[in-house]
Amino acid sequence: xxxxxxxxxxxxxxxxxxxxxxxxxxxxxxxxxxxxxxxxxxxxxxxxxxxxxxxxxxxxxxxxxxxxxxxxxxxxxxxxxxxxxxxxxxxxxxxxxxxxxxxxxxxxxxxxxxxxxxxxxxxxxxxxxxxxxxxxxxxxxxxxxxxxxxxxxxxxxxxxxxxxxxxxxxxxxxxxxxxxxxxxxxxxxxxxxxxxxxxxxxxxxxxxxxxxxxxxxxxxxxxxxxxxxxxxxxxxxxxxxxxxxxxxxxxxxxxxxxxxxxxxxxxxxxxxxxxxxxxxxxxxxxxxxxxxxxxxxxxxxxxxxxxxxxx
Length: 311
Fold this sequence. Notes:
Elements: E1 5-9, H1 15-20, E2 30-34, H2 37-45, E3 51-58, E4 62-63, H3 65-72, E5 78-86, E6 89-93, E7 104-107, H4 112-122, E8 127-130, H5 134-142, E9 148-151, H6 155-158, E10 162-168, E11 175-182, E12 194-201, H7 209-218, E13 224-231, E14 239-246, H8 252-264, E15 267-275, H9 293-307
């Protein structure tokens, strides 16, 4: 395995690359762009890279389904950290292009809902066609296949384009969350401001099945920050659930919730416990009474005393 190589969703000039370069260790790694999220993750599975940075969630569109599905299937991988990057688009064009010249535009499918209103107001007759990434859209504009691309302003120099319009976003606080994914290993020590990610499969479809799953978290005071259903490919109506929860697997409330899920679900895939980006211990809401590690330990000791006849 190349311990110095990180892959990412390419080509050069993507928001994923920009997010990766915010990590201190990126300065000492070989950063290799890949054509797709599956390709970036497969490089880790095949031992060609130590880790991959891929988008997993957008504040406008929700989960990035390709990443969610890739992490739920195939050889297990684990998330080690996350990066949250504010997103604003630029309209990139070949030099000399005016707004009135633009008949076709391109960008990643996730970008379209983030610029839809701007596009309707400023280029209502332009034809949108999706590209593999925003940077790939810039490449296609350079090659003359489209008139303009929505991408990061920083991609303009890479592809010899000009930013005709900058700071385009329908949602003022749009952001994308990226995750650094590697092969499974012991999670890093808890920081007090962590996130735990899992994928959960229900045993059978019956009234209250999802409620039973959620209760494993709720009764232990574990807050969920994301819950999404994804089809398993085994037939209409058959889903697994991708879940992000506050806390670390070594927190007793989180560990016991995961054990509870393992008892009632045929499959639970642990994707990692890792620090939340931009969140410190002081930002975390106080725990519900009865859910701290010390209170779990006190209850366990009480049970042992009862079993020993030491009331």
